[in-house]
Amino acid sequence: MSALLQATDLRRRFGGLMAVCDVSIEVRPGEIMGLIGPNGAGKTTFFNLLTGMTRADSGTVVFDGHDVTRAKPEAIARLGLARTFQNIRLFGGLTLMDNVRVAGRVQARHGLLSGLCFTPGSRREDEAVTEKAFDLLRLVGLEDRADHLAASLPYGDRRRLEIARALALSPRLLLLDEPAAGLNPSEKLGLADFIRAIKERFDLTVLLIEHNVPMVMGLCDRVMVLNFGQMIAVGAPEDVQRDPGVIEAYLGGDAHGAA
Amino acid sequence: MSGFFENYGFLIVTIVQQALLGLSIYFPLMAGQLSLASIGFYSLGGYVAAVMGTHPALAPLREALGFWMFPLEWLGALVLSVILGIAVGYPALRLRGIYLALATVAFVQVVNVAVLNMPIAGGAVGIFGIPQAFESRLDYIWFFGPLFLLALFLVWRIGNMGRGLAFFAVREDELAAGAMGVAVTGNKVTAFVLGCALAGVTGAMSAPFLNTWNARQGTFDASVTCLAYVLIGGSRSIWGPLCGAALLVSLPELLRPLKDSRMILNGIVLVAACVYLPQGIMGGLAALRARLSGRGGAA
Question: ipTM score here?
Fold first, then answer.
């Protein structure tokens, strides 16, 4: 089976810091893949490289048969690669509904002129997008606040809205950057089930960054580990958990001696 | 009543004309772009109309078209504004916030120096004796009024249709907008060019209205005044630019009895508006309405 996403020798340097160093990885259709690593390991930079927000110094990214290494973020999003952000980036001054509708218009064919002329096509398109957005808000349980401003939401609800917004792109691959950060324990448990549910329902492939190791181990089919920009392990969660290199990266160089 | 219009007709038409310039700044602001370039396009649009209205080589065309020469002037200004807007917009809109504002101020200065040195634009004297469209200045409301309604319709419709959301998404968060499939640069340039086109056509209508046209129409001061219409009136309401223009254009007239001290009071009103109405007059009214209807409790 061919990979949905294939990164080859991806490299990005910020001044003297090698943020991502020759990382190659395949994400297979239908899997949930975890990306873990200590703080500053280059996880978010890796996401930014995949989504066109940071340019790679070298290497290639192929998504669904398209070379997207030099593509703009909006072009990559339109191909069906959606993401959330570690530090949640909602459109704060827009309503929940409009946040989702922005993304829901990704395949829209009716533009400015069509809308200004009130063409029936643009009206139907707006209605369809609105309906889909409402369904997504209901999915994440925010439909009763559809007309509130996104900035007014509490933290946990913002994360859910951001996922709803990403799903509105009708993505094939969903990148989640620390979806459990800042959630309380019961919310975290619910999140793992939620991710599994949306994966089934929307036929998604998921790549997620997460610090919560139990959640990663329970949720992911495969896990890749970054440390100082380099991929030090990839494989099934239980194998990665036993990998000496991973243990050393997480617990420090002396862990073996002290244990 | 007729006495009222005789005295204040020019003022009312000027308010609508200036509100159009305010709206031309409002368009790029919808996509979060603070541009002061409008006055440059206003100036150029005015020169297009002034040259088309007075150049001897075009006399046969004017005779043939009669009144229809004016719409042709608007069209000329529109085409020039759109082309120049795209040419300026693509490089300038790579800059953000204050840097974009500075770049657009520079554009206004370039236009100013360029027209001062172009023989066809009449140098420092400018172009005068521009043919009038109407006998009375008041009748120019038939130029500015429909254009104003059209601009209001555009702002309203963009705010209410799905396609318009892309502008607001770019305003709220460029990075997230890109990640959600919104063409960031394209939307910025579109919003910017809409503003340029409106300013250009307003200029083309203003040249006959003001009878003469010179480089003083496109100064930095005028740019800042236009921005003040939007900021004082309210940058998140479609009525903001009209409100701001009405206040700023009429204030010096209303305070005329105070003679020389009126400009001081004018300044005090502006400072007070900035301090006490940070969201502009329309923003202040909206907050007041929310407080009255919210039974005092809602934040």
Answer: 0.91
